[in-house]
Amino acid sequence: MTATFHDLKDASVFITGGGSGIGAALTAGFVAQGARVAFVDIADASAYAAELAEGSFHAPLFIQCDVTDTAALTGAMDQACAAHGSFKAVVNNAANDQRYALADVTPEDWDAMHAVNLKAYFFSCQKAAQNMAPRGSIVNYASTSYMIGSAALAVYATANAGISGLTRSLARELGPQGIRVNAIAPGWVMTEKQERLWATPESKAAFLDSQCLPKHMMPADLVDPTLFLASDSAAMMTGQMMVVDAGVVTTG
Questions:
Q1: Fewer CB within 10 Å: N-end or C-end of the chain?
Q2: What is the rounded (10 degree) CA torsion for 234, 20, 168, 210?
Q3: Beta-bridge partners for 92
Q4: Rg for the chain (alpha carbons), in Å?
Q5: Domains in the chain: boundaries
Q6: CA-CA distance, 62 to 142, in Å (whole number)?
Q7: What CATH fold (topology level) applies to the domain 7-244?
Q8: Is the pLDDT at 71 greater than 90, yes or no?
Q9: Is residue 142 exposed (0-12), middle (13-18) or buried (19+ Cβ within 10 Å)?
Q10: How deeply is 75 buried, as exposed, middle or buried, from its count of CB atoms within 10 A (0-12, 13-18, 19+)?
Q11: Which residue, 172, 167, 169, is CA-closest to 182?
Q12: Residues with Cβ < 8 Å from 190, sequence gap 6 or more?
């Protein structure tokens, strides 16, 4: 169950990476609000879109897309606007948190990681600003990795620090248009990918000890914070980084 944000009903919402992990939970959350959702993912998520369509107010529109292909990304956003109207909210969620030891990073690795984790965010925001309804909202997904200095995540953390700077700068630039730009920095969320690749019993126990709340975070824990930032309930909130991490990072 999520909170209800009445202004999101029938609203045009675009989500990157919306077919798996946190993104899949976000797609389902906006669909449940009655929003007109379009989402992209590099993998085929048409079956997931069909599943969400059952019993929904509006069937979600899935467009298969590699967000590192800027022309494909902006084309998908144009397609979403044509189908659903100007964006009420754009959520940049697609990311790759591949681990690299410092000595192993190649220029190709660096460019590929920043293409998905930062470049795609910039050009999605650029396109969103051209196609956003009054009182629109951009929500950029970052990570607490750049705040806590996670080992083997230097490339990813650098991009996430860039998302923070991008969010603050665009909040200032787009404010006169009535567009809000905020970011969410999740802690360690136990997605299927994390469980499969990196979440050993030892690492999970150690990270749980670092949290104030003794419960592992799940994708569903990010839905309500994102809905809030997308909605008019956060009408005077912009340029902010919202940390949702069960209490590892302290802010203020």
A1: C
A2: 90
A3: 140
A4: 17
A5: 7-244
A6: 23
A7: Rossmann fold (3.40.50)
A8: yes
A9: buried
A10: middle
A11: 167
A12: 199, 204, 216, 217, 218
If phi over 0 gives left and psi between -120 and 50 gives alpha, with beta otherwise, what is residue 16? beta
Instruction: Please write the tens of the pLDDT for every residue from 167-220.
Output: 999 999 999 999 999 999 999 999 999 999 999 999 999 999 999 999 999 999
* pLDDT(252) > 80: no
The predicted pLDDT at position 118 comes to 98
Pick from 147, 119, 135: nearest CA to 229: 135
The torsion region of residue 172 among left (phi > 0), alpha (psi -120 to 50) and beta comes to alpha
The candidate with the shortest Cα–Cα distance to 57, out of 30, 81, 88, 91, is 30
Of 48, 121, 146, 156, catalytic: 156
| Cβ atoms 72, 61 nearer than 8 A | no
For the segment 3-14, the average pLDDT, to the nearest whole number, is 97
The residues with which 15 forms a beta bridge, in sequence order, are 39, 91
The two structure tokens encoding residue 29: 């959350």
Judge whether 100 counts as a catalytic residue: no
pLDDT at residue 2 tops 90:
no
* CB contact at 8 A, 127 and 81: no
Q: What pLDDT does residue 116 have?
A: 98
The continuous run of DSSP H or E covering 89 comes out as strand 87-92
pLDDT of residue 1: 64
Q: What is the structure's pLDDT at 175?
A: 98
What's the pTM value of the predicted model, to 2 decimals?
Answer: 0.96
Mind listing the pLDDT tens digit for each residue in 99-157? 999 999 999 999 999 999 999 999 999 999 999 988 999 999 999 999 999 899 999 99
